[in-house]
Specification:
11 helices; three-stranded parallel sheet; 2 domains
Length: 291
Amino acid sequence: MLKIKLAALAISLATLSMAGFAEEKTITILTQQDVYNDYQKFIDGRDPLTLTQYSGPGSRRDVVELVLVQQALKAGGNNYPIKIVKVDNTSDSYSRFIKEITSGSATVGGNSAWLIDLKQINDKVYISEPTIRQGEFEAGLYTTASNVDARLSKTLPQIQKLTAVVAESWKPDVATLESLKFANILKTQSWDSMVGMLAKKRADVLLAPFQPTPDLSMDVNGHKLVPILNVKVGLQGSRHFFVSKASPIGNDVSKSLNSGLAKLREQGLIEKAYRDSGFFNNATRNWNRLN
């Protein structure tokens, strides 16, 4: 009986060991809950590795990046299984997003981050080639559909009189708004808080990527946001995917990712994904860039 119990224990320990080994050899791609929800809507049961059209319900920059990171890994020769994991949308979700990857709890970020942020943790992460290159990131000044004063602002002096809101941890956004010399810039903790301040009329505008909708609008928690027409701003810096150096397969994943991104770039799929999602937006091509 003792031998049987010892044998059963040995099998149990071996099973746990194999499970742990399998987990070590799995690429966990981290994203935020709201991105994952829209990703599910966008994918709609399709295989993300086979997509070449990136428009449709749920499509936006963060969503197509979650597709691109998987496609790049495959194109770069990755053979490890992939699992998408999520962090909740909270006031510190971005910080947790970074922490989960630097600690090795997740292998790779499913959404790009600004190089200025990644340089501060480059001892803990491998930084990919840029997905959004310097000078490519353009955004709109979004306001609520009912904010007539903001929507009628056309010139830079008129816009500077408005109150802008931004998450204080979003360094390129803060720097951009400060360079535009807004009379008042309110700083908060999260995207949801920013939208809430617009809805409560405590602020007039926020920076957001252009959307693929016919009127470029977006719906956030029941609030319709629209861009001030015919004006746009450029955010300085490039954006990159990043891989945990704490992961036992991090180096392999980083090599596959960079190799695959180069192939997707050559095939025109990176630009196409951003264009199909509305991030590179033909409708705003000739709008007045304020900076």
